[in-house]
Design goal:
Elements: H1 22-40, H2 47-54, H3 58-61, H4 63-86, H5 88-105, H6 112-126, H7 130-140, H8 143-175, H9 177-198, H10 212-223, H11 226-254, H12 262-267, H13 272-280, H14 282-308, H15 314-342, H16 347-376, H17 378-410
């Protein structure tokens, strides 16, 4: 009697440009990224209007941004663990639904305290999206296309940040900051619907049981990886600059010597389009210069932009913002994709730790940048940003030297190559 052989089911092919499903996945995560940044930073461009409307200081108003990013940073790691059990797609959907629901309530907050609470809840809800998205892409997309795919997700971030700030600026000028926040909420509703319709089912996800001890070991393992730690610190330092600059820039441009109206200040954020292109093209930069070369390029571009903004010329400030935005989004795309590439297990937690560091950097940059600006002016905010970029330079240089030492050790006669 012939034996019956069992054949293990083939692993579904990973997605890449040109294969069915890749375009749908890219579009779904693009609109998810758009909604994430539009909601997360919805009050940032409106801070002068919020200060005036609620009769609070700029420092107090800045907490409407810092509370959201800080809550996201705290919640992102626990929610990433839930995504290991319930799936990336389900977690991203739930995050968008809750964040959108809160976003529709935010315009009706009667005072600053409740506004900050709602913004914190919104940030915590959004925490389930970015880390799950990175892990989802790492599981479903071919390695050679991963940087470009994550770059498109980050490009959605930049579009969301840009459109949210432009629309809110003009709407606030015409109808007030509450109407502007309501408009952001309605846009996010549309993004959530498109995301759910377009995102394909996961084909390479395997649910894992929830285990507190296992979760602790996983997180501890990632935090003991020197390369991951450097990448987390690099992401945080880039975001210190970005969070600080874009939290404070509205106050600088509405004050002397520029004295621009809120709508015009909002339009300045069209420079986010530069981030859209730089993040989407980050894969090509890495292919030509390598990951560390791309990071050097990003930090030099960001630093140059900071210095250019010191001039009391609107054209110079806009040019500086262009450079800062291009450098930031390139650095973020490279660092975040390197985390997904470095972590071979529990990628959601690895990406979540990156997101936690990234958004803690945003909260710190916004708070410190605002305090520095109101104490010593724009030059103090720029000095904070340059100090952060010096940190990125040191970490990247250290990584370069470590790679050279490792390569030298691997060529020692009679010694096995290092891993």
């Amino acid at each position: 009697m012939a034996s019956v052989s069992t054949v293990a089911p083939a692993t579904p092919a990973l997605l890449s440009p040109g294969r069915p499903g890749y375009r749908r996945l890219s579009l779904a995560l693009f609109v998810a990224g758009l909604a994430t940044f539009a909601l997360l930073y919805s009050t940032q461009a409106l801070l002068p209007a919020v200060s005036g409307g609620l009769h609070v200081s700029p420092g107090d108003a800045s907490w409407t941004v810092a509370a959201a990013t800080g809550a996201l940073a705290v919640a992102v790691v626990p929610l990433s663990a839930l995504s290991e059990r319930f799936g990336r797609r389900s977690m991203m959907t739930a995050s968008l639904v809750v964040a959108v629901a809160v976003g529709l309530a935010v315009p009706f907050a009667p005072n600053l305290a409740l506004l900050i609470v709602l913004r914190a809840v919104q940030g915590a809800a959004l925490a389930g999206l970015p880390a799950s998205a990175m892990a989802f892409l790492a599981e479903e997309v071919e390695g050679r296309a991963l940087v470009s795919a994550i770059g498109l997700f980050v490009a959605g971030n930049s579009i969301g940040g840009m459109s949210g700030r432009i629309f809110t600026g003009w709407i606030s000028q015409a109808w007030g900051w509450r109407a502007a926040l309501a408009a952001v909420g309605l846009v996010a509703v549309a993004c959530a619907v498109v995301f759910r319709l377009m995102v394909p089912k996961a084909r390479n996800f395997t649910p894992r049981p929830l285990s507190l001890a296992g979760f602790g070991r996983t997180v501890g393992g990632h935090l003991s990886n020197p390369l991951l730690l450097r990448l987390y610190a690099i992401g945080a330092l880039f975001m210190v600059v970005f969070g600080g600059v874009y939290t404070v820039i509205g106050y600088r441009l509405t004050g002397a010597p520029f004295s621009l109206p809120q709508g015009v200040v909002g339009s300045i954020f069209v420079v986010y389009l530069v981030g859209t292109f730089s993040s989407a093209l980050s894969g090509r930069v890495v292919a030509r210069l390598g990951r560390r070369g791309a990071l050097y390029t990003a930090l030099c571009t960001t630093s140059a932009g900071l210095l250019v903004t010191l001039m009391d010329s609107l054209a110079a400030v806009v040019a500086g913002l262009v450079l800062i935005t291009a450098g930031f989004f390139t650095g973020h795309a490279v660092a975040s994709s390197s985390v997904s590439r470095t972590a071979t297990q529990a990628r959601a937690q690895a990406s979540a730790l990156y997101q936690a560091a990234y958004y803690l950097g945003s909260s710190a940059g916004g708070a410190i940048g605002a305090a520095a600006f109101h104490a010593h002016g724009w030059a103090a905010t720029v000095a904070m940003g340059l100090a952060a970029m010096a940190g990125v330079a040191g970490l990247t240089l250290y990584g370069t030297l470590e790679a050279r030492r490792s390569a030298a050790r691997s060529h020692v006669p009679g010694r096995a190559p290092s891993a």
